[in-house]
Amino acid sequence: MKKNIIWVIIVLVAFLVVAVSFFVTKEVTVNEQFVTEYDKATPVYRRAENFVRNEEYSKAENAFLTVVNDYPESIYAENSRRNLIEIYRKNKDYKKVRDNYKRLMREFPDIADSAEVKAIIEDLNLQIMFSPDIAENSVEYEVLPGDTLYKIAKNFNTTVELLKKANGIEKDLIRPGQKLKIIVSEFSIFVDKSQNILLLKNMDEIVKSYQVSTGKNNSTPVGVFRVEEKMVQPVWYKIGSVVSPDSDEYELGSRWMGLSVEGYGIHGTSDESTIGQQVTLGCVRMRNDDVVELFTIIPSGTKVTIVN
Is 189 exposed, middle or buried (0-12, 13-18, 19+ CB in 10 A)? Predict the structure, then answer.
């Protein structure tokens, strides 16, 4: 009996020794893999830093790209991505700056400055859109005899304001043979009443987010609507009175975009301190600079989704 017990103990001890050896070996292997990868990325990153110091930015770009592409788990990967951003910013290649900020967010979603990076991406979205450079979601168009900005905007489902802004045009006159950048994005608007946030989207991608005010007592309608009339400081038909834009009582601000639900719209404000609160009579209220920007971008017919 005692011999059997002794043999059982020996077998258990042997099993434990083998098991511990396995896990230790596995851990060492993992650590060795990390060290190997760390060691491989280190000289490449150091070389890239030297290129930057010597202002050899093309060589630095290639080295930083090697780190982010070949050693994505390296401790140098995040800094390499940020260094690439600075190189592209120095070269004024704002599309690459924006795209690398997006990659930074995808690769390192828990970075401390994520909110700041998101805001930078949105600003770059508009900077690229408003520049004359042809990028994604835009095409070059040659003006034909008989063309007008209004006709072109209608044909491409965009706005005259966006055509003028993207092409640096101040007047409404264009000439045959002139080359124009035309934005062909499919814009939509999403409003979250609980967050008092309005999102301008292109397909499923957020282009720009705006803080807004919505209706008190949950008075902003919920559903899917369309932008109908777009107006610059229209007369305000307030209940019981008609208010002109030069009146102290005027509350529509710089722009009005009426929705396909009677009496409601997206507009500016005479008091920007109320933005971010649920205080309106049901409309979506924006800062004046923001509503002018949105008015410039979206055409009539744009889909507007409002949720609680």
Answer: buried
Q: pLDDT for 157-176, tens place per residue?
A: 999 999 999 999 999 999 99
Tell me what pLDDT residue 151 has: 97
Q: Where are the domains of the chain?
A: 1-111, 138-183, 187-307
Asked if residue 255 lies in contact with residue 230, where contact means CB atoms within 8 angstroms, the answer is yes
* 267 belongs to the catalytic site: yes
The list of the chain residues with pLDDT below 50 reads 8, 11, 17-18, 20, 22-32, 35, 37
60 is catalytic: no
Contact 308, 248 (CB under 8 A): no
**Cβ atoms of residues 261 and 280 within 8 Å:** no
Phi, psi of 241 (to 5 degrees): -160, 165
Closest CA to 233 of 212, 256, 251, 213: 256
267, 269, 296, 304: the catalytic one is 267
As a whole number of angstroms, the distance between CA 27 and CA 111 comes to: 27
Answer whether 1-111 and 187-307 agree in fold: no
Task: Write down the pLDDT at residue 250.
Answer: 82
pLDDT value, residue 29: 42
Give residues with Cβ within 8 angstroms of 217, minimum separation 6: none
Please state which CATH number belongs to domain 1-111. Answer: 1.25.40.10
pLDDT score recorded for residue 28: 38
| CATH superfamily, region 138-183 | LysM domain (3.10.350.10)
Q: What is the pLDDT of residue 25?
A: 44
Catalytic residue among 266, 283, 284, 298: 283
**What does R_g of the chain's alpha carbons equal in angstroms?**
29
* % of the chain exceeding 90 in pLDDT: 77
CATH 2.40.440.10, applies to 187-307: yes
